[in-house]
Amino acid sequence: MIFLPVTQESIEKGAHILKNGGLVAFPTETVYGLGADAFNPLALAKIFEVKNRPRFDPLIIHIASINMLENVADLSLLNEHSRYKLFILAEHFWPGPLSIVLPKNKKIPGIATAGLQTAAIRFPDNSAAQKMIFLSTGAVAAPSANLFGSLSPTRAQHVRDSFTDKIDMILDGGQTKIGIESTVIDITGDRIKILRPGGTSKETIEKLLNAHLDYADKIPKPKTVIHDSRQVISDPHSSILNSPGQLKSHYAPKTALSVLSHEEIIKKQFTDEDAKQAFLFFDGQTRDAWQKEQAAFNKNKENPDAPVVKVLSEKGDLLEAASNLFETLHELDACDASHIYAQEVPRHGLGEAINDRLLRASSKPD
Ligand code: TXA
Ligand code: MG
């Protein structure tokens, strides 16, 4: 496996490997993707193999120019309204963290879309990714470059840790800017549906289109109940899923994780009898309130074992919190804690996507 920083030469090398059916992990503005030529079924199959990804989970097709769109999608199958929405969305949000589900072009093999007649298309906002895609066949299918069900990678090193020599090359472009995956929306029907909340907020899309968007998601909205990874919520494979990224147990750290409301986490006491616990706060204010409570609780104890404490955004900024999410979960996962208690974040803007990932991180299949 070749591990190279972004240069013109390494980008060309990556494109060459892609054209020859190899796998190249590359940075996007959201997370690292594990890329294969979107027109090459054998190369695509390798993605599923190395990721241990179930066949029913379709891949996002990445393009690097609007002109490529008609080679990956069949726009003649869209009605006039949907085509209009597509052009407005593409003009406004591309390049950027929005994947749009469209009727697929016949040239895209079924394995890319897990047998669906639609494909999720995205134009990433990262110049190294754009150049490499442009120099390859122009369309690169890429899921997040992590093993199925585990945390998404925001650094090249995360990719290296998961795949060692199973892939041909990793293009190291440093830490990704947004740190959370793209929003996936379906515009093929009369009403636009959000299949996965992500780096483009529901509100900005609604404002642009002057329309109300539905979540196709069957995942419960964050509630003030504890979601414990040891209580499996349901069999994630049994439900009908519009977008298989909606599996409840997705993006999961190895450590058990519970999502707590603001009120619950402040009152959550760490117990020094237990193995080490970890606390993940949304903002500094909540952490401070929690620390005050702990001081009162532990005042008669000699030497309580300190838990690991992390904050997603000291000043409570959702954008910053989103970009730190996977990074911080990776860190917490590596610190040998027995349990992670994570604070639910405000339910607007990118908060929807963060809560969604936290809830998925809180349930694991058997
Ligand atoms: O930010 C991102 O989107 C990253 C970077 C690498 O671009 N990619 C990513 O891909 O997150 P992946 O494969 O991990 O997630 C793709 C999501 C899944 O939830 C999948 O089910 C959904 O997109 N998806 C893909 N094609 C679809 C389709 N035709 N219909 C419905 N959902 C689709
Ligand atoms: Mg993924």
Would you give an account of this structure?
By secondary structure, this protein is α/β, with parallel strands linked by helices. The chain folds into two domains: 214 residues, DHBP synthase, CATH 3.90.870.10; 107 residues, Rossmann fold. 31% of the residues lie in helices and 18% in strands. The protein contains eleven helices and 15 strands. The strands form two sheets. Strands 1-8-2-3-7-4-6-5-9-10-11 form an eleven-stranded mixed beta sheet, with helices on both faces. A four-stranded parallel beta sheet has the order 12-15-13-14. A hairpin with a 6-residue loop joins strand 2 and strand 3. The longest helix is centred in the last third of the chain and has 16 residues. It is globular. Threonylcarbamoyladenylate (TXA) binds next to strand 5, strand 6 and strand 10.
Shape: globular
Beta content: 15-25%
CATH class of the largest domain: Alpha Beta
In whole angstroms, the N-to-C terminal distance is 32 Å
Total of helices: 11
Radius of gyration: 21 Å
Q: How many DSSP E strands?
A: 15
CATH architecture grouping of the largest domain: Alpha-Beta Complex
The hetero molecules present are:
threonylcarbamoyladenylate, magnesium ion
Q: Poorly predicted ranges (pLDDT <50, ≥5 residues)?
A: 218-250
> What is the spatial order of strands in the main beta sheet?
1-8-2-3-7-4-6-5-9-10-11
Rounded mean pLDDT is: 85
Main sheet attributes: strand count, strand direction, barrel closure:
11 strands, mixed
The total tally of domains equals 2
- Looking at CATH, the homologous superfamily of the largest domain is DHBP synthase
Helix content: 25-40%
H/E element order: EHEEHEHHEEHEHEEEHEEHEHEHEH
Structural class: alpha/beta
